[in-house]
Amino acid sequence: AGGEGATLTNGSPAPPGVPAMAGAAVGGADVVFFSGTRATVVGLSSGTGLALNGQAGTVLGFLPGKDRFQLRLDCSGQTINVRKANLEVHRTTEAGGVGGSEAGGGG
To answer: Residue 43 and residue 39: Cα distance in Å, rounded?
Structure first.
């Protein structure tokens, strides 16, 4: 039951030298985020949270006592604490870049 071979949430192997920030059993699968993971806020329903939906940012770390990830928002630089269920991880392309368009439409 070793921890080697960590994978990203999209199933890709973790890049060498990138430490896992957190691993938690979610939906029956191990989910691992890494510092620097790009993600978008989704599914918040509070008045304040609604304004954050769709905002992209970078995962900074994990707060085990709160079971939340720290996310620095691109738009404001603000750091927020978000549950895993409210983060949609950006997929990484084979070339190593991050897919920037939610609408697809590439060619």
So the answer is: 13
What pairs with residue 89 in β-bridges?
Answer: 39
Residues in the chain: 107
Please report the pLDDT score of residue 96 as a whole number: 47
Contacting residues for 17 by C-beta, under 8 A, at least 6 apart? none
pLDDT at 32: 62
Nearest Cα to 85, choosing from 23, 27, 10, 6? 27
Contact 34, 2 (CB under 8 A): no
Claim: this prediction has a pTM higher than 0.85: no
pLDDT digits (tens, 9 = 90+) for 45-66: 999 899 999 999 999 998 989 9
b/e string for 20-50 if b means 16 or more Cβ within 10 A? ebbeeeeeeeebbbbeebbbbbeebeeeeee
pLDDT-based confidence at residue 28 (cuts at 50, 70, 90): very low
